[in-house]
Amino acid sequence: MHKNQSVYLDIAESIRNDIEKRRLGAHARLPSEPELVRRFGAARATVRRALAKLQNDGLIYSRRAVGSFVAEPRIDQDLDQLFSFTEFMVYHGIKPASKVITAEAQRIDSPDSPLLRSLALRPRAKVWHVRRLRLGGKQPLVIANTWLPAARFPGFLAQDLERRSIYDIMNEAGCKPTDAIQTMEAITLAPQEAKLLDVAPGSSAFLIRRVAYSKGVPVEYAVDYYRGDRTKFRVRLGVLERSHQD
Ligand code: 16G
Q1: What domains lie within the chain, and their CATH numbers?
Q2: Distant-in-sequence, close-in-space partners of 26: CB < 8 Å, separation ≥ 6
Q3: Tens digits of per-residue pLDDT, 28-57?
Q4: Which of 22, 173, 194, 213 is least surrounded by Cβ atoms within 10 Å, i.e. has the fewest?
Q5: Pocket flag, ligand 1, residue 144 (CB < 6 Å)
Q6: Residue 103 near residue 130, CB atoms below 8 Å
Q7: What distance in angstroms lies between residue 166's CA and the mean position of ligand 1's atoms?
Q8: CA 244, CA 188: separation in Å to the nearest integer?
Q9: What is the pLDDT of residues 3-32, one digit of tens each?
Q10: Residue 136 and residue 96: Cα distance in Å, rounded?
């Protein structure tokens, strides 16, 4: 029992290694199950378990009756830097694109709304809301909801929001985000969001809420859904220096 458990992990590790070293590129077909059985000298059920683990980890996908294939790599995002989606994609050599789903003016009534509180606005103050599907290399990656205080960005909705970076537009208005506070939660996607992101309903995603500030003034409230199988966050950790007398 114990041995079988480690055998499936060893097989998964070996295939993971081939993928990470790029011996198998994105969308390359994995050897068939019988070939893997021969190669690893393992039972078919063990090979299947290894493949199920890799699929669960987002490294491969399977097509019924055809086989397993290498998934697109995850996009690594450093959490200690404030990047716009556009800057981030360009940095990784991926062509960014956007589809605007909604672009409208809104007025929120409830004084308890996190949006109003985060932007330090009074009830019924005008905000711009833009909902975009963000793509990298034609692949849908993020559903991004952005709210901006309308008073700071006159004429915002007249901009070409499909082609332009919102952070660029904010920069032109003298309010480029200089720092932000962000929270991240794991969620499963509702059917409508899953469809937009081209994944199965119930797939995992990161729900990210961000309040961005421009020199201390809140200028953006954002609620984004990042595809769980395409996103990896990385953060640098330091050790708190403590005196030994404590
Ligand atoms: C990022 C930000 C989002 C911002 C967008 C601007 C996170 C979690 N979110 O997606 O808050 O609205 O960039 O991108 O990083 P843009 O300048 O390309 O339109």
Answers
A1: 2-70 (1.10.10.10), 75-234 (3.40.1410.10)
A2: 70, 71, 72, 73
A3: 999 999 999 999 999 999 999 999 999 887
A4: 22
A5: yes
A6: yes
A7: 7
A8: 45
A9: 556 899 999 999 999 988 878 888 899 999
A10: 5
